[in-house]
Design a protein that fits this description.
Layout (H helix, E strand, L loop, with lengths): L9 H4 L36 H6 L2 H15 L3 H13 L3 H13 L7 H12 L4 H13 L7 H12 L4 H13 L7 H13 L3 H16 L7 H13 L3 H13 L7 H13 L3 H5 L1
Length: 280
């Protein structure tokens, strides 16, 4: 069921292909049942970041910025000219962006093989966005032979740098056992790390993950994980999570049994009008 995706702010990124908006909820047998799959390749997390521009030298800064402005205006010929010059000099962000343009066929003939080559050049310099993009190419077999193990390796390099999209993708690979040994707990941990950075799809499924670990639905039963994630949402004011966390404290599931804590969480949920908590 698991495929691969690299999502982001489409408006900011200015370009995307094949974004999946629907949630997969037909089956609750494993973690991927609730993950929204996205196969778009974007310029980065949230698009072209001017923080990246500021890191470059003055000349490169102006050229990169000119390319970014041109790209916003869909003047792909100018963007290509500005970024190609930088990419040839080893500018990792520009190399990644050229990969995006070849992947999407923007100002150039669409060519997955050339896209993968540019991603690789940036990825080998340690640029996390390109590492994640190259992982996607290997995962989908676009421009390179499909190779789940290599895909997972590139995802991991980006994920370990804190790149949320790669963390989410790597979690999906552990869930499915693609290129890595299947491990639901490790899958959940990577997805959790992505969620903590604000990754929308990862956050979307955390409640389902908490419930699944609490009931052992398709994953090994682990009340401690369930309680941890219910607590995260409960502290943000989610009434359902507050009620569930109260139940876990009441039963001593995943947390030390504590009737006072249980009552407190039931009270918080009840004060929001949550009927089950009011009964508890």
């Amino acid at each position: 069921m698991m495929r691969t995706w690299l999502d982001g702010d489409v408006k900011a990124a200015l370009s995307s292909t094949g974004t999946c908006q629907e949630e997969i909820r037909a089956s609750m047998r494993n973690l991927t049942a609730t993950i929204c799959l996205t196969i778009a390749i974007l310029l980065g997390s949230g698009g072209i970041g001017y923080s990246d521009i500021l890191k470059a030298g003055k000349a490169a800064d102006e050229s990169f910025k000119a390319g970014a402005v041109a790209y916003e205006k869909r003047d792909y010929a100018t963007a290509l000219r500005e970024w190609k010059h930088l990419a040839d000099q080893g500018h990792a962000e520009a190399q990644n962006n050229l990969g995006v343009m070849y992947y999407n066929g923007e100002g150039v003939l669409q060519n997955d093989k050339i896209a993968a080559e540019w991603y690789r050049r940036a990825a080998e310099q340690g640029y996390a966005k390109a590492q994640s993009n190259l992982g996607i190419m290997y995962h989908n077999g676009k421009g390179v032979p499909q190779d789940y193990k290599t895909a997972a390796e590139w995802y991991r390099r980006a994920a370990e740098q804190g790149y949320a999209k790669a963390q989410f993708n790597l979690g999906g690979m552990y869930d499915k056992g693609e290129g890595v040994p299947q491990n639901y707990k490790t899958a959940a941990e990577w997805i959790k790390r992505a969620a903590e950075q604000g990754h929308a799809d990862a956050q979307l499924i955390l409640d389902d993950l908490a419930r699944m670990f609490g009931k052992g639905e398709g994953v090994p039963e682990d009340f401690s994980i369930s309680a941890e994630w219910y607590k995260r949402d409960a502290e943000q004011g989610d009434a359902d999570a507050q009620n569930n966390l109260g139940g876990m404290y009441y039963n001593g599931e995943g947390v030390p049994q504590d009737y006072n804590a249980a009552a407190e969480w039931f009270k918080r949920a009840a004060e929001q009008g949550y009927a089950k908590a009011q009964y508890n």
